[in-house]
């Protein structure tokens, strides 16, 4: 299996033969105030093996698309050509076409074909250092694929020109589809000088949420670097609600569904019922496992759910631990710097993950679990489940 796409919400996931779960209405979902157990199937049976986890992952992918994101369409043929530094990607669908450019910045070091990090809108990491070590940077124009100006942006952008303005996909599912088409184009365009088997994805803030979704729903992405992604990204809905209830100025599900169109339109049903979601963001991040994920957070950004991001990411990391790949999921949280401006103190973690998971250096230490906040290191009282060892 290489992609988690629209088939997840059908009876079977393409290539997996795993039956998708029942998807009841909101009123029929049982409230769960704590972080749901990622190691229980929808029918409450335990996940006991890595094969079980693949089935569970299928369930989660179906639930996440149905309730939160909308459906990501399956693969589509693409046409691609180089125009200067831009890879121009054209996607046809039922007599219509959508074309977008992706700017490629080749590295100063290394050897072609190069590994690359795709930036959702932009790459706002230690870009010069990444290019010196041999990593290309690619700008994915997500706003052309699906607009995100405000609540009036729903159904606008090239994705909806192809699939209709009433498609269930929110902007992030549409972006994920576009990233997959970009990867298709890279794979068939040698002149791009990019190794499509060594790709990362990144984004910051709203685009950091989108990076997590892209990484979760395309197995060809080897490394996801989620930067200050906030609630609906690394920060979970339940813990963000708790921060808000404690008087902190934190974005919640109730607010976010009124602000923009990142999620499917029906997600607003959970505005007053986040506890009824059968999953939370630790499980959305867990769809990436066992591929690599580095969560880069800013302790000073209370609005982004600083404590929620820390605790939810800790819970997500238990999925990597269960699969025997705890060193492929890291959390680096440092405050005292502007939003989306990576501080020098976090350069090392980003470089380590790029060296190991894009450049293929197996002995690089990627054990990262740091915060300069005063948040507890444990997961209690937010979980009542144990982490199995899956074989």
Structural account:
The structure is a single chain. The chain is an alpha/beta fold. The protein has helices spanning 50-69, 127-132, 142-145, 158-163, 171-187, 206-216, 237-245, 253-259, 281-286, 306-322, 347-357; strands at residues 79-83, 86-93, 96-105, 114-120, 136-140, 194-204, 221-227, 292-297, 329-333, 369-371. The protein has a ten-stranded mixed beta sheet with strand order 1-2-3-5-4-6-7-8-9-10, sandwiched between helices. The radius of gyration is 19 Å and the shape is globular. The model is unreliable at 1-17 (pLDDT under 50).
The average pLDDT value, as a whole number, equals 94
Count of separate structural domains: 1
Categorize the overall geometry.
globular
So, the CATH homologous superfamily? Alpha/Beta hydrolase fold, catalytic domain
Spatial strand sequence of the major β-sheet: 1-2-3-5-4-6-7-8-9-10
CA gyration radius, whole angstroms = 19 Å
């Amino acid at each position: 299996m290489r992609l988690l796409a629209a088939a997840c919400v059908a009876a079977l996931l393409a290539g997996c033969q795993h039956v998708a779960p029942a998807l009841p209405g909101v009123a029929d979902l049982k409230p769960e105030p704590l972080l749901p157990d990622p190691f229980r199937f929808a029918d409450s049976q335990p996940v006991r093996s890595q094969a079980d986890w693949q089935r569970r992952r299928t369930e989660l992918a179906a639930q996440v698309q149905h309730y939160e994101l909308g459906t990501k369409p399956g693969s589509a043929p693409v046409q691609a050509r180089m125009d200067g530094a831009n890879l121009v990607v054209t996607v046809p669908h039922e007599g219509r076409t959508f074309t977008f450019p992706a700017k490629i910045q080749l590295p100063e070091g290394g050897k072609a074909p190069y590994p690359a990090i795709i930036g959702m809108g932009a790459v706002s990491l230690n870009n010069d250092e990444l290019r010196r070590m041999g990593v290309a940077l690619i700008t994915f124009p997500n706003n052309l694929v699906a607009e995100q100006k405000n609540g009036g942006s729903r159904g606008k952008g090239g994705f909806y020109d192809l699939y209709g303005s009433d498609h269930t996909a929110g902007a992030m599912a549409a972006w994920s589809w576009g990233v997959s088409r970009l990867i298709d184009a890279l794979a068939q365009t040698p002149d791009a000088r990019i190794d499509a088997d060594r790709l990362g994805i990144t984004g910051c803030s709203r685009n950091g949420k989108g990076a997590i979704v892209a990484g979760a729903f395309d197995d060809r992405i080897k490394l996801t670097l989620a930067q200050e992604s906030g609630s609906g990204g690394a920060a979970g809905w339940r813990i963000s609600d708790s921060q808000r209830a404690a008087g902190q100025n934190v974005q919640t599900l109730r607010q976010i569904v009124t602000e923009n169109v990142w999620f499917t339109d029906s997600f607003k049903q959970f505005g007053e019922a986040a506890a009824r979601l059968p999953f939370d963001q630790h499980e959305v991040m867990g769809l990436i496992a066992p591929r690599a994920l580095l969560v880069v957070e800013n302790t000073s950004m209370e609005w982004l759910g600083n404590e929620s991001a820390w605790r939810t990411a800790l819970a997500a990391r238990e999925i990597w631990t269960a699969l025997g790949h705890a060193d492929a999921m890291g959390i680096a949280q440092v405050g005292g710097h502007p939003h989306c401006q990576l501080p020098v103190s976090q350069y090392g973690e980003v470089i380590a993950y790029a060296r190991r998971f894009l450049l293929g250096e197996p002995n690089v230490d990627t054990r990262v679990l740091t915060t300069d906040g005063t948040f507890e290191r444990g997961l209690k009282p937010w979980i009542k489940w144990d982490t199995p060892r899956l074989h």
